[in-house]
Amino acid sequence: MGKIVVPQTVNHLEGIIFREGILKRSFHIDGTERHFSYYVPANLKKDAKIIFLAHGSHCNGDIMRKATAYSFEEAAETENMIVVYPDSFGPYWNDGRLGRVHIARETGIDEEKFFRRIIHYMSSVYRASNKDIFFGGFSNGGALGFRLSQTDLFKGIALWCINLPSEDNREYEVGGEVPTIIINNTEDRMVPFGGGDLIGSDGKSRGRFDSTYESFLKVSKADALPEPSMEAGYKRYLLNKNILLEIYKGGHVIPHPNTSWPAGLGSGSTVDSVKIILDYFRGL
User: How far apart are CA 131 and CA 39, in angstroms?
Assistant: First the structure.
């Protein structure tokens, strides 16, 4: 069986086939139609966990399904959880960054209200838990995760390929208590591991970002990194309940052995980041 090919953006979806079994819905929130898709396992029971997976810029929930190799859906069959793929309004989430002007920011899209509405729907219709709720975000979706970590929505958060926007590049303060795992690749050319300007495809800056180490320390409210444990393909840092995975090499991709990403985003990795995240969430 070949690897799952991940489309780079919604402009690359022609001819792409997706696995069946997904449900789609939309809500009108503050006069704006918001869309999401979700996966419900066949043997769903009361108080199921909810896991949100937020896509990157110019993508959607369908692409996020492929980007995570449908692995969360496969886990849902044995772990009693609903997997939700929300869609951004326009090409970007309103993630609290100041260095990027786009329609979601200009219209003041309330992402927290969107997520709360979905949680209420899952609780009302499927009797899902309103406590065991988790978030995973890639790139722009990960930037949204940093912002939403300041709310009481989630029990745990996982972030791929993103650093914390620098203090002059965000409209929120960092001070949440949500356990967080950050998974960054050392050769990410879009969001530099060492921090600095995030440069778009047009060559213009999207604002400055802290380094991966600085981001992890701020989230963990710590002053110094601990000694990492050396694993196959990555270093693992632990501070309080927070984890940083420093993936050797790898580009702007979600590490997984069963996916193939566009060459422009850099190399992939055989590290199964989905399994690591699921193990992390189980322990919270």
Answer: 19
